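Sequence, please.
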């Protein structure tokens, strides 16, 4: 049976329990468990780590602990009954553990190790506390260490500060808020202290003691390394003060033997001394540790005599000093000893020995000798602090090794009354003057000192030479060599017992130490002095000049009386003149001996006046004089004899009260005030003890009261008031004497004269009041008197309470305090004193009695009220208040307290609020209060007053609040009060008065505010709702509630679970309570709610965003209420709508709100709205708000995370569109326009930035309306703003190179300027427009790629989810790069491997799928593209800009597939995507609005291909006819060759076979028209070719004649082959109406582009025709060639199988044969046959290195160049893309991976071409293709570094080698084809020539390298042909022109002249695989013989003088965009050069 436990509540697991039984609770050793029930040896409960998991465990596994249980029952709280410090350490360490690991994760390694160290220390300290073996003192110390560490860790880990009292945490319920505030302050202070000075926080929690802490210096001699002495040494250490030039301590003596070891073996390792009682003042002195070394041995060290000396002399040797200032800092910080080395200096002249230390300190280096070695004395020092007992306790080791206590000379700064009894006479042997005595040399004099008692006996052991050695009966001074005036300055201590002092005397004997043979010492004189004078005073502290009496060595002093009768010194001689002259001893008149003495005695005095007072009865007539002279006695003497003096004074008083009364009173006052000095402060207890135990003056009180009253009454008249002030200061002890005296009298007389006593005290108080009531403004002395009185006054209360009742004393005090004038009439210094007096009154014992408080509180509050009203002395007032609250809180159970609180509320509440408001406003403006200049103090004052206010509010009950409300006379007063208190509360929330880590304080504050608000709301509701509605008060209340709920300290979600539970247990969730309060107040408003719409929407919205479900549930319906009220009033809720949307935006962007909130918001409001009449509008509004929230949340998360720029732009566009289209919030819309613009600028999307700003531009009109300041726009007219915007937009279009978009804006601006006659601006804008036209013609622009992206799956943000977009790629960005970028932006996404539309499963799945392929733009503006004469630069813009339609094609087979000719069944599926907006626009991508699908039949495809080729040929030929392209006809040659030569392979024949077949014609009667059209086009093609050949003949260079002849032959063959298919061709000839034959590529470009994924099986025709003449025999070859961007697989990381490649047709770089006319210039077409049955279509990486070269390889070079779009290869670096004439489609896109057979030479070595060889058919091509093969296959599909040594693309003077395009402005660009990298490019043209010795990796491109364009020098223009130049004759290898690709086989790399004929040979060797280089400039090197003059120096690359081609520096790499259309050639070379230079600079 399970029964609930009674006492067994908490335990610690002592053995791990696995919990393997049913319901078992798994437990680890050390866990704490709380026990709920027990049953037969088992407990049921839970672990405190996981309180929610309950289970059973064996009772034997748990060690029970005693506990305190509160709130018994299911929710009981159990706290272990142990030392609170231990509990705190455990819980804190658990909390730290989690944070500590985080430090490591966040790389805060330093703090990590520090915290670990502190945690280990805490565990150790906890163990010590738990052991229970510590004494009380030790455990206090351990606790102090614990709390310091806990506070340190909490601060560094950002945890809450723990308020403590005596090391334990305080419970805030049991103390007042003011005390709690003070504890927080002191805890924070202690944390700061511990952080700055380790554990130096000794008196943190106690009262700071007024006694200065003494210091003690430990000196330990480690070794003395001067072994050169070889004699015993005495080393003396002392402390020396340089400024006062005196030694301040006794000496510490160390005796060493000649080996340097201690003479006393017991002293080994114990040579240490403690210099005690050094005060703070001493530590600031200029102190030195001085060490004198005295040797004992021969007279002279270098004495040559052998053997030990007969007589030992003490002789000076050396001295060492150490400046304390140098070492003090070091030793003060350390806790252990620190070693120092002292050099020992020797004295040069013994006469100077007495001041050697000074000389060393002052560095008088002539007077001492520096030692030869750097060693000397090694000492260690340590500084200890505290009184002696404490030091002994803390450092037992030091004292255990026998440390010598070395005192200061004289008394320490603080004299302890019960201190040790001392009686020390310090004697200094100063100097002597002695006669030579007839000798030739001076004497060596030694002094021997004896202490003799009155009976002549030598006192044993009364001489101490230094601490550390035993005392001796006699002392011998050291000897100075040959010196008759020796100066010793040697100090010895004479500790003579007190009873032997009187009658004792000192005798000094002088001996001459001979250095002759015997070395004996001869006595020649002596001196003496008694220690005490006749009058009983001791020898005074001064220098004494003693007489020297002659004697000889035989003299014995057996009868000391013989000399004691003689005068010892001059004073003595004067006092006894009649000295008999017949004495044995004669005084030596010329000899003198000086000594000085200093007495440190607690029992003897040297003061005559003091002795006279103590023996006053001997001379009663001198009493007046003696009392008068007491003031001149030193304090030390008085405190030594304090008790005797007091007894004497009171006996004098008893002797004659009237006569001696005032003088005794004065003396008593003097002594009492003496004890106020800190030096004698410790004698106060002696005084107290005396009064209690020894004082016997029972009658004294009468005289004392009389004198005191007399003094006070005189204060109004007397000018000098020093004596009055002294009496006032002594008030406390005077009262002690008075009261004690009265008690004694009362005891003796059984209470007689009680009334007289009482009335005399009453009168005394009247006098006190009189003094205080005097107006002191004119008398400064009076102010001091009053101040002295006020200071002492509170100290007398305790005395009075011994004789009077509490009530009576309180009345006395009230009268006194009441007599003080109010603030206005007093000086400010008096204010302070007065308030301090009140403060001490409040702190006194008297105030703790309720009956006295009833009397005193009103008067105290009155004064405080006065000060607060005037904002004076705020700090003191707050102190008084907090003391009052502290007392009231501690006794708050009494009923009397309720009345006191009532009094305080009446007097203080209002003025407190007023004070706080003014302080807060000041602290906000940083004007600190008077006398508190720093903001820190202002903050402290604010904190003090806030805590006072909170204390008061916390004490108030509902009765107090009720009375308070009733006491207001009018509603106006009530309103004012409410506004004040609400305002203060609001400021409390806003200003965060308490630091962030004062969580205890913050929570308590919140609790008090909540309670107060609950008390105030009824008053507000009752008084200010109906007719008296007051908006201000209500608004103030709501604002407070909102601020309150949003407080950071109340957001429990951010707390750790344990802390959250703690807060909830104590206070509950205060946000919810306040929310209920807020809601009910809102409901109480009734019709007045309308006043708070829309003002309160934002604040309330902020409240609903607090992540607390209950708060949200309560508050969200308020919005429905608001909508309802506004609907009633206005018929709509537009304001609510507008405000809600506005505020939602700003709040969400601040990080508030979450997905749950969005759902809850919609749910709750829709539910409410359902019942309303305005349901429809409401529902639509709520829906749009939730959708907005969705977007805002996405936007915020994106901005907050480190998302890519692209994603951020996407989110912003989406939000912007939402604001515009769905919500129509113009201001928000404009804000987001600017945010979006900034993002575009950051990403350098200038065109998009311009389009974005255009959105705002469109909103503005050209009007003079004034617009207010907004965002960064100033206040200005609408016209000005629109103009500024126009300029900015134009600027951005310019930076984005979209000048065509900028031109209309220029015109618009021009029109405005013109209409305003602003011709200056007009001129500027027109020039700008003109410059834009120039830019269009001259500057290169890249045509971007376009990609279609589908985002599928629910994991995408909703604005992308399951939608497709078309994106405009970046410059040079190819498909793979784009795919990489997208996958980088969505790292979770999976790339789809096919282009088909995804199914429903993918759309609804919880993941992300990306589908990407390239698409081709379908321009709308066809007109311009069909105009022949329009330059291609202009057309290229219209091809890719402002396009809304994009398409991609997919080839597929319909019906049976013809193995012989697949064209018959190859259809194209063409998908057109229509976007919502044309690109470019405000974003780089737009959503697809609709898809259009059409199927193109094989015949239509053929028509389209041929038509496009015709158009291309026509354009090109016309350009040559009209001389738009000058000189270089390579392009024409290659194009014609591509079309004509392909026919040999049956290119067009394939179409003939497929469509002119009778079978086809009969089976497709509907195609008759199209077949006719195809025939016409073919005939037209023949005609066009004829014209082309005619033009070619005119222009062809003589050397190229063989090629031309070959073309003519091929053309004849082509015509004849066409004749078979097209009878009657000859007849029509060139006169055919269409004019020119169609191209031979019968497939649509698209079909060509990619192979059909679903190709059927069956043999495939042996030829594959690539559009424009690339013919393949084997279709599988085509797979290796994957030509278009669309064919590239997904990038290497997510590569797709080739189905994707095959079907993703969208963005061919090749033109499509089926393109309409308007598109002819756009692309070159590539047609692909279906794959071979045996070769799977995924064979993207087929290895073709084995086997002979295929026809594709051969045919590859037929690709003809057509005007087409440049492509951007994702695999290319920017450098690679720098091509003069880009290819329209190049193998680069897909072939990096897809053309293994092209790999060999992609990065091959550039080498000069080699002479031709006759190769067998198969070998020929392998030469080129194998050359490619090896390297490409090794290359990863990464970005090959492409050499930049291409010629620049600027309009520079044309020259055969300059890279100008052969085309003029209208020419189309050259198309790169499959062949475009076959041969190595002749980079070796100029100085950067790459010879065969270059490293093989010098070039890694060549696939697209050849697209070079050419122009000729102007001087060459006349010549129709340009001769080939062979370089051999020029003295160096001739270098092919910059763009010519030379072919070489790796094995044949050799230097030699280029044989262009070799190329020509290739073209002729096999008619079916002419080796053509379509993308390169023509292979004929067109040069004239060198001109007569060398070319001008300004010509750039390509125009370098040819005499020394090697000498030119290599041209720097120059980035050049891919697509180039050249401008017309500039007029002169200079201009061209200039333009070229400028362009070059700009490009760079």
């Amino acid at each position: 049976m399970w029964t609930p436990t009674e006492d067994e509540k908490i335990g610690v697991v002592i053995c791990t329990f696995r919990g393997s039984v049913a319901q078992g609770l798994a437990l680890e050793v050390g866990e704490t468990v709380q026990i709920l029930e027990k049953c037969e040896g088992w407990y049921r409960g839970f672990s405190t780590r996981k309180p929610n998991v309950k289970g059973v465990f064996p009772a034997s596994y748990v060690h029970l602990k005693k506990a305190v249980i509160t709130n018994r029952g299911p929710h009981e709280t159990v706290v272990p009954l142990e030392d609170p410090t231990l509990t705190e350490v455990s819980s804190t360490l658990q909390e730290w553990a989690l944070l500590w690991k985080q430090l490591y994760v966040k790389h805060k390694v330093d703090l990590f190790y520090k915290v670990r160290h502190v945690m280990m220390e805490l565990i150790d300290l906890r163990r010590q506390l738990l052991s229970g073996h510590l004494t009380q003192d030790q455990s206090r110390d351990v606790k102090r260490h614990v709390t310091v560490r806990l506070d340190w860790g909490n601060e560094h880990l950002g945890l809450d500060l723990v308020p403590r009292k005596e090391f334990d945490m305080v419970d805030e319920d049991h103390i007042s808020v003011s005390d709690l505030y003070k504890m927080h302050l002191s805890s924070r202070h202690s944390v700061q202290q511990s952080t700055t000075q380790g554990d130096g926080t000794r008196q943190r929690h106690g009262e700071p003691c007024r006694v200065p802490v003494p210091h003690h210096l430990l000196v330990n001699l480690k070794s003395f390394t001067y072994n050169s002495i070889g004699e015993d040494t005495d080393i003396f250490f002392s402390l020396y003060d340089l400024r006062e030039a005196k030694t301040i301590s006794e000496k510490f003596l160390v005796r060493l033997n000649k080996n340097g070891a201690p003479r006393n073996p017991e002293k080994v390792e114990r040579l240490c001394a403690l210099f005690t009682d050094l005060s703070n003042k001493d530590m600031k002195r200029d102190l030195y540790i001085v060490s004198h070394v005295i040797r004992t041995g021969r007279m002279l060290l270098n004495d040559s005599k052998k053997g030990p000396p007969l007589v030992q002399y003490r002789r000076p040797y050396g001295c060492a000093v150490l400046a304390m200032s140098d070492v003090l800092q070091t030793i003060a910080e350390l806790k252990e000893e620190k070693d120092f080395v002292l050099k020992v200096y020797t004295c040069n002249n013994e006469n100077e020995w007495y001041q050697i230390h000074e000389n060393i300190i002052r560095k008088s280096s002539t007077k001492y000798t520096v030692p030869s070695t750097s060693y000397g004395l090694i000492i260690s020092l340590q500084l200890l602090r505290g009184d002696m007992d404490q030091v002994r306790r803390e450092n037992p080791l030091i004292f255990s090794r026998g440390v010598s206590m070395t005192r200061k000379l004289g008394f320490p700064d603080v004299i302890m009354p019960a201190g040790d009894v001392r009686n020390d006479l310090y004697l200094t042997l100063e100097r002597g003057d002695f006669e030579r005595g007839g000798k030739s040399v001076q004497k060596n004099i030694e002094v021997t000192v004896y202490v003799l008692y009155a009976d002549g006996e030598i006192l044993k052991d009364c001489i101490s030479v230094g601490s550390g050695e035993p005392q001796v009966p006699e002392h011998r001074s050291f000897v100075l060599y040959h010196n008759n005036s020796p100066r010793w300055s040697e100090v010895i201590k004479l500790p003579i017992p007190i009873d032997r002092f009187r009658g004792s005397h000192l005798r000094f004997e002088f001996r001459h130490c001979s250095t002759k043979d015997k070395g004996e010492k001869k006595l020649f004189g002596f001196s003496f002095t008694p220690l005490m004078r006749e009058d009983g005073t001791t020898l005074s502290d001064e220098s004494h000049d003693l007489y020297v009496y002659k004697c000889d060595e035989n003299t014995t002093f057996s009868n000391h009386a013989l000399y004691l009768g003689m005068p010892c010194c001059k004073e003595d001689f004067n006092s006894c003149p009649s000295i008999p002259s017949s004495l044995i001893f004669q005084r030596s008149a010329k000899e003198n001996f000086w000594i000085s003495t200093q007495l440190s005695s607690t029992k003897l005095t040297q003061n005559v006046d003091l002795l006279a007072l103590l023996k006053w009865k001997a001379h009663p007539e001198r009493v007046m004089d003696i009392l008068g002279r007491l003031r001149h006695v030193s304090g030390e003497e008085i405190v030594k004899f304090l008790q005797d003096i007091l007894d004497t004074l009171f006996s004098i008083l008893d002797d004659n009260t009237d006569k001696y009364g005032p003088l005794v009173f004065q003396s008593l006052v003097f002594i009492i005030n003496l004890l106020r000095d800190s030096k004698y402060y410790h004698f106060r207890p002696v005084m107290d003890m005396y009064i209690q135990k020894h004082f016997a003056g029972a009658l004294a009180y009468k005289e004392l009261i009389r004198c005191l009253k007399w003094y006070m009454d005189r204060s109004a008249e007397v000018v000098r008031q020093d004596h009055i002030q002294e009496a006032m200061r002594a008030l406390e002890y005077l009262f002690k004497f008075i009261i004690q005296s009265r008690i004694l009298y009362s005891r003796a007389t059984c209470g007689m004269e009680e009334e007289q006593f009482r009335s005399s005290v009453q009168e005394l108080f009247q006098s006190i009041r009189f003094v205080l009531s005097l107006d002191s403004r004119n008398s400064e002395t009076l102010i001091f008197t009053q101040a002295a009185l006020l200071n002492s006054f509170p100290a007398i209360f305790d005395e009075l309470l011994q004789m009077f009742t509490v009530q009576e004393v309180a009345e006395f005090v009230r009268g006194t305090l009441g007599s003080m004038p109010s603030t206005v009439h007093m000086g400010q210094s008096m204010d302070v004193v007065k308030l301090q007096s009140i403060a001490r009154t409040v702190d006194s014992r008297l105030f703790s009695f309720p009956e006295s408080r009833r009397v005193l509180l009103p008067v105290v509050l009155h004064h405080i009220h006065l000060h607060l009203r005037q904002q004076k002395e705020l700090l003191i007032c707050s102190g008084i208040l907090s003391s009052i609250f502290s007392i009231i809180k501690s006794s708050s159970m009494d009923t009397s307290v309720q009345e006191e609180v009532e009094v305080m509320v009446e007097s203080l509440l209002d003025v407190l609020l007023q004070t706080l408001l003014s302080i807060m406003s000041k602290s906000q403006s940083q004007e600190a209060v008077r006398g508190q200049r720093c903001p820190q103090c202002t903050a402290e004052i604010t904190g003090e007053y806030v805590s006072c206010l909170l204390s008061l509010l916390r004490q108030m009950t509902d009765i107090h609040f009720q009375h308070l409300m009733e006491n207001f006379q009018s509603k106006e007063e009530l309103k004012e009060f409410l506004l004040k208190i609400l305002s203060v509360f609001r400021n409390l929330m806003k200003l965060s008065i308490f630091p962030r880590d004062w969580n205890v304080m913050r929570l308590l504050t919140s609790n008090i505010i909540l309670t107060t608000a609950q008390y105030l709301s009824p008053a507000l509701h009752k008084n200010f709702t109906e007719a008296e509605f007051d908006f201000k008060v209500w608004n103030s209340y709501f604002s407070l509630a909102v601020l309150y709920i949003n407080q950071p300290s109340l957001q429990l979600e951010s707390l750790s679970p344990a802390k959250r539970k703690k807060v909830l247990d104590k206070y509950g969730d205060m946000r919810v309570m306040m929310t209920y309060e807020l809601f009910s107040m809102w409901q109480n408003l009734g019709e007045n709610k309308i006043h708070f719409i829309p003002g309160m929407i934002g604040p309330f919205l902020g409240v609903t965003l607090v992540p607390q479900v209950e708060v949200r549930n309560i508050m969200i319906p308020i919005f429905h209420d608001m909508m309802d009220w506004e609907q009633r009033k206005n018929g709509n809720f537009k304001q609510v709508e507008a405000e809600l949307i506005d505020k939602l935006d700003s709040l969400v962007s601040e990080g508030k709100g979450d997905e749950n909130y969005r759902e809850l918001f919609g749910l709750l409001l829709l539910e409410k709205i359902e019942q309303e009449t305005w349901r429809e509008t409401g529902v639509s509004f709520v829906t749009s708000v939730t959708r907005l929230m969705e977007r805002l949340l996405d936007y915020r998360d994106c901005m907050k995370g480190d998302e890519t720029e692209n994603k951020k732009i996407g989110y912003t566009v989406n939000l912007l569109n939402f604001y515009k289209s769905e919500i129509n919030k113009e201001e928000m819309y404009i804000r987001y326009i600017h945010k979006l613009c900034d993002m575009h600028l950051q990403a350098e999307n200038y065109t998009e930035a311009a389009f974005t700003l255009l959105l705002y531009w469109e909103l503005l009109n050209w009007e003079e309306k004034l617009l207010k300041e907004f965002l960064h726009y100033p206040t200005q007219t609408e016209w000005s703003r629109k103009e500024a915007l126009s300029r900015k937009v134009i600027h951005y279009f310019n930076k984005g190179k979209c000048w065509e978009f900028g031109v209309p804006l220029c015109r618009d601006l021009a029109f405005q300027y013109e209409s305003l006659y602003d011709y200056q601006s007009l001129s500027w804008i027109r020039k700008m427009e003109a410059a834009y036209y120039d830019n269009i013609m001259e500057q290169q622009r890249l045509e971007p790629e376009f990609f279609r992206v589908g985002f599928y799956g629910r994991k995408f943000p909703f604005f992308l989810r399951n939608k497709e977009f078309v994106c405009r790629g970046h410059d040079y960005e190819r498909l793979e790069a784009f795919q990489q970028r997208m996958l980088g932006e969505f790292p979770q996404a999976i790339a789809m491997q096919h282009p088909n539309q995804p199914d429903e499963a993918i759309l609804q799945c919880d993941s992300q799928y990306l589908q990407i392929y390239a698409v081709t733009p379908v321009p709308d503006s066809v007109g311009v593209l069909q105009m022949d004469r329009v330059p291609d630069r202009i057309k290229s813009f219209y091809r890719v800009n402002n396009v809304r339609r994009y398409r991609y094609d997919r080839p597929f087979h319909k019906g049976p597939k013809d193995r012989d000719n697949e064209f018959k069944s190859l259809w194209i599926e063409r998908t057109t995507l229509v976007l919502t907006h044309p690109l470019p626009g405000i974003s780089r991508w737009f959503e697809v609005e609709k898809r259009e699908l059409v199927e193109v039949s094989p015949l239509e495809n053929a028509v389209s291909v041929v038509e496009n080729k015709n158009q291309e040929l026509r354009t090109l030929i016309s350009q040559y006819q009209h001389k738009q392209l000058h000189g270089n006809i390579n392009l024409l040659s290659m194009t014609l060759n591509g079309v004509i030569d392909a026919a040999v392979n049956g290119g067009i024949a394939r179409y003939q076979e497929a469509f002119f077949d009778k079978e086809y014609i009969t089976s497709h009667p509907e195609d008759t028209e199209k077949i006719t059209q195809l025939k016409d086009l073919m005939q037209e093609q023949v005609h066009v070719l004829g014209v082309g050949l005619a033009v070619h003949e005119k222009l062809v260079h003589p050397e190229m004649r063989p090629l031309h002849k070959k073309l003519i032959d091929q053309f004849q063959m082509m015509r004849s082959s066409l004749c078979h298919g097209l009878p009657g061709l000859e007849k029509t000839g060139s006169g055919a109406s269409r004019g020119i034959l169609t191209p031979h590529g019968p497939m649509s470009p698209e079909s060509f582009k990619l192979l059909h994924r679903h190709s059927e099986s069956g043999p495939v025709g042996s030829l594959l025709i690539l559009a424009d003449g690339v013919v393949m025999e084997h279709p599988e070859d085509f797979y290796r060639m994957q030509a278009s961007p669309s064919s590239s697989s997904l990038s290497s990381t997510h590569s797709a199988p080739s189905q994707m490649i095959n079907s993703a047709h969208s963005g061919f770089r090749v033109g499509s044969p089926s393109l309409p006319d308007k598109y002819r210039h756009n692309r070159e077409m590539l047609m692909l046959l279906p794959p071979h049955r045996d070769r799977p279509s995924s064979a993207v990486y087929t290895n073709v290195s084995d086997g002979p070269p295929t026809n594709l390889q051969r045919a590859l070079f037929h690709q003809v160049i057509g005007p087409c779009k440049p492509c951007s290869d994702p695999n290319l670096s920017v450098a690679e893309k720098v091509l003069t004439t880009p290819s329209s489609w190049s193998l680069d896109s897909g072939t990096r991976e897809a053309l293994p057979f092209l790999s060999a030479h992609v990065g091959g070595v550039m080498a000069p071409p080699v002479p031709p060889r006759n190769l067998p058919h198969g070998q020929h091509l392998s030469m080129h293709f194998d050359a490619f093969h090896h390297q490409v296959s090794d290359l990863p599909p990464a970005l090959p570094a492409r050499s930049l040594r291409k010629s620049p693309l600027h309009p520079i003077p044309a020259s055969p080698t300059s890279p100008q395009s052969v085309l003029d402005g209208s020419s189309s660009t050259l198309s790169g084809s499959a062949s475009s990298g076959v041969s190595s490019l002749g980079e070796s043209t100029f100085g950067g020539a790459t010879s065969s010795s270059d490293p093989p990796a010098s070039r890694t491109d060549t696939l697209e390298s050849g697209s070079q364009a050419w122009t000729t020098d102007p001087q060459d223009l006349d010549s129709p042909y340009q001769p080939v130049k062979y370089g051999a004759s020029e003295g160096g290898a001739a270098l092919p022109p910059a763009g010519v690709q030379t072919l070489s086989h790796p094995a044949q790399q050799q230097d030699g002249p280029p044989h262009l004929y070799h190329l020509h040979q290739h073209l002729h060797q096999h008619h079916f695989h002419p080796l053509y280089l379509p993308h390169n400039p023509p292979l004929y090197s067109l040069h004239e013989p060198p001109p007569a003059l060398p070319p001008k120096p300004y010509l750039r690359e390509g125009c370098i003088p040819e005499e020394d081609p090697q000498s030119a520096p290599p041209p720097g790499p120059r980035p050049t965009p891919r697509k180039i259309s050249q401008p017309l050639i500039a007029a002169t070379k200079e201009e061209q050069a200039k333009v070229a230079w400028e362009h070059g600079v700009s490009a760079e």
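Confidence is low (pLDDT under 50) at residues 197-209, 927-933, 1624-2029, 2035-2044.
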